[in-house]
Prior knowledge:
The chain has helices at residues 7-18, 23-32, 39-47, 50-57, 83-89, 206-219, 250-267, 282-291, 312-315, 318-321, 354-361, 453-459; strands at residues 62-66, 70-77, 97-121, 124-149, 179-184, 191-193, 200-202, 223-226, 272-276, 323-326, 334-337, 340-343, 365-368, 374-382, 387-395, 416-423, 428-435, 439-442, 445-448. It is of the alpha/beta class. A six-stranded mixed sheet has the order 10-9-8-5-16-17. Helix 1 (7-18) crosses helix 3.
Amino acid sequence: MGKRLSKSDRQFIISAKLAGHAWSDIEAALVENGCTAGRETIRGVWRSSDEKKLNDSIDRIQEKQDGENRREVSMASSRITTVEDLVQFAQVDLTTWYIERHEINKWEVGAKSVERDLTYVDGRATGTIRSDGGLRVAPLIQIKLWLRRIKPVPVFPTIQPVFCTENFEMPEVVREAVQRSVILADPHIGFTRDLRTAELEPFHDRRAMDVALQVIQYVSPTRIDILGDFLDLADWSDKFTRLPEFVQLTQPAVLEGYWWLRQIRKVAPNAVITLYEGNHDERMRRAVLNNMRQAYELRAADEMDLPPALSVPKLLALHELGIRWIGNYPDGEDWLNGNVRLLHGNTAQVPGNTAKAVVSKADTTEIFGHIHRTEWCSRTQHLRDRIEVIEGFCPGCLCRIDGVVPGVKEKQQWGQGIAVVDYTEDRHNIAPVLISDGRALWDGMLFEGEDRTADVQQAYPDWNWG
Length: 466
């Protein structure tokens, strides 16, 4: 009975392919040696080998762009052996880029010994190519360059903070027997721009947000918790290619975001309002760290007690609206009482599974955003002296769910909603308020949202709000 592939057989396959031998010759040699492995098994050894990956990259320039101001250029070759060779071959303009660092690696690879006796007449080759079956060892050099632009291009738009003409004091926390919080999440205030008309197409759903505003006015809550991703900040992302339609749109997002926060403060002047940092809000902080470290935590001389100049809470003028900011995503959190934790969240699984995953690990009830859909799951925990019910709950989102918001795919299984939570020091009750097509039915009331575009246009007439 024949044998399967041994370690020496695998080494033979890789060496033979590096030397340029045909598959028919390799398979015949293995059969002669008593190997019974199938054709796909034999070829799979080569396909999965590191040597093939290296061989495929030989004499090919590999380029990776990291934003607008960083590049990585690499090449494995027996001909390109110095940094200067690669700079010339890759046509790197050293008046535009400088080499931040480089790395040189060296290997030895085998290749067939081949004699060529060719002549070219009228673009056609004539002659012979002969191989004596021998193997020669040739050096292979890999050079990697990390490049940085000498004069960095602006990667983020110029934006200005908003200024509040009214002063709002931070309300004091009132400890009543039963308190109430209205919880919102993920409006993703932001835009795409029509390149022909300059009209702004919003990511946020103004009718859904107006429903939330009406519910806040109706219930007069003790507190309002906005669980993150208040701004989308698509043009600050370093994960996706920034299309022209998404550029220079932070300023209108800041203006309209401030407008909505001001409406909330007006209808709930005594509520404690808290805005949490989500992963989209964090884009600005991360971008400053990665691209503008000189601006990190930078403050004006007369604003040392305020948030950094280039930060979401400062640009939204939260200090003038009397709104709390909880940053430090993903660890930023707050508590309704000793049993209910509020945060943006960083867990996302297939629809129906996120709340289950959250509650399986939690030791207290968690109310979170991030997943853009209403999910609710609970489990009962039997302790020595009591029984506890632990819940995982997401109220849904306030952004559009028709595919306009940039995401992994166009049609997401998202759902809009908010929540009204009543709580005491040791108890709570969650009441979801589902929103569909700008309407919500809750507590015997029909809330119909209005498109507030005209109001935003009146407040900021210099922008084409659509």
